[in-house]
Design brief:
The protein is of the alpha+beta class. The chain has one domain: 4-Layer Sandwich (Phosphatase 2c, domain 1), CATH 3.60.40.10. The strands form three sheets. Strands 2, 3, 4, 5, 6, 12 and 13 form a seven-stranded antiparallel sheet that branches. A five-stranded antiparallel sheet has the order 1-15-14-7-8. Strands 10-9-11 form a three-stranded antiparallel sheet, with helices on one face. The two termini are about 40 Å apart.
Length: about 350
């Protein structure tokens, strides 16, 4: 999926929207997924500018901008937490310094997170093996900008229930990732049914996902994972990389939800991402009706439509968990969604 740049001259037209999220630990000992959201990204950008002695004079602040991000950590939560706490600020700094392209700002911010994290770990805790995926969506009026590293997918759901993928998962099963990995001296192996251990790709029946070596990861891009990237720690440069892909589109008028999930959710949708439409709609509608009829109340400090969006996310997460292949193991299962109320043709409460 090719990278594209943001379109100049964005219309200030804004969607009536709300953000919902839900994170489930599954059967894992720790929760390594995380989300970061900001429904009023312009105000946050102005705060970042002021705190860093900068200004937003060259930035058109009339379009509404909404930010959502999901991270799926592995081998511990430390890398995920580091990036989660800093990515919004870093994107703002990159855009303020060079206004005009959100894809460029997101790309630079992700690579800066990689540089800072790897330097920090190499200097202070080289035993830290943690890493994370990251998928970001910025809705600027009616333009959607995505950037991603790893396999946490983003997709659109329209009112007909059709899912449109915004991202391609960075996994070793992807042909262009295979070519890149092998050119860099890495290997792709899979565990096979016959015998034990890992075998080279091809010619054998596979059991489980393809994995990248050196690393053993079933993703081909990530932030962190320094043990697999730094030669002096046993890694190999250019095999597992942090470089993100980006994509920008004008949002179709029938899109109701913009969803980002961890693979613990999306991998359980074995019939395709379109399976997500009914449970997310059901969760939203059930919550909306319960509020309207006085059967439920939002949490303290929570807006009614935020309550509906969170219940929509929770509904989809539990649907995916029930669809899981194993009752004994379930990965962290999380999602965040922008719910476009005007496209849903639903009146705010």
């Amino acid at each position: 999926m090719p990278s594209t740049s943001s379109t100049p001259g964005v219309s200030p037209q804004a969607h009536d929207l709300v953000i919902g999220s839900f994170l489930h630990q599954g059967t894992k000992a720790t929760q390594e997924d995380g989300v970061a959201v900001d429904p009023n990204f312009n105000a946050f950008m102005e705060k970042v500018a002021a705190a860093n002695g900068l200004d937003c004079i060259d930035i058109d602040m009339s379009p509404r901008r909404t930010f959502v991000c999901l991270l799926d950590g592995h081998a511990g939560p430390t890398c995920k937490e580091y990036v989660q706490q800093r990515i919004l600020t870093q994107i703002c700094l990159e855009f303020i310094r060079a206004p005009g392209s959100w894809p460029d700002a997101m790309r630079k911010a992700i690579m800066e997170m990689e540089r800072k994290w790897c330097r920090r770990v190499c200097e202070h805790d080289p035993a830290d093996r943690s890493g994370t995926t990251i998928t970001i969506a910025i809705l600027e009026s009616n333009q959607l900008h995505c950037a991603w590293t790893g396999d946490s997918p983003c997709w659109l759901l329209d009112r007909a229930g059709t899912a449109t993928a915004m991202t391609t998962q960075h996994r070793p099963s992807l042909a262009r990732e295979q070519e890149r990995i092998e050119k860099s001296g890495g290997e792709i192996k899979a565990k096979v049914v016959e015998g034990t251990g890992f075998w080279r790709r091809g010619g054998q029946r596979k059991e489980g996902p393809l994995r990248v070596f050196p690393s053993g990861l079933n993703i081909s891009r990530s932030i962190g994972d320094i043990k697999y990237k730094v030669p002096k720690l046993g890694g190999q440069e250019g095999v597992v990389i942090a470089d993100p892909d980006t994509r920008s589109i004008d949002l179709p008028s029938d899109v109701e939800y913009i969803v980002i999930s961890s693979d613990g959710l999306s991998d359980n949708l074995t019939k395709g991402l379109g399976e997500s439409y009914k449970p997310i709609c059901k969760g939203f509608r059930n919550a909306y009706d319960a509020l309207k009829e006085g059967r439920e109340d939002p949490e303290p400090g929570q807006e009614p439509m935020e309550f509906c969006a969170d219940l929509a996310a929770e509904s989809l997460v539990y649907f995916a968990i029930k669809r899981g292949k194993s009752q004994k193991y379930q990965d962290n299962t999380s999602m965040v969604a922008i719910c476009l109320l005007d496209n849903m043709k639903i009146a705010p409460l």
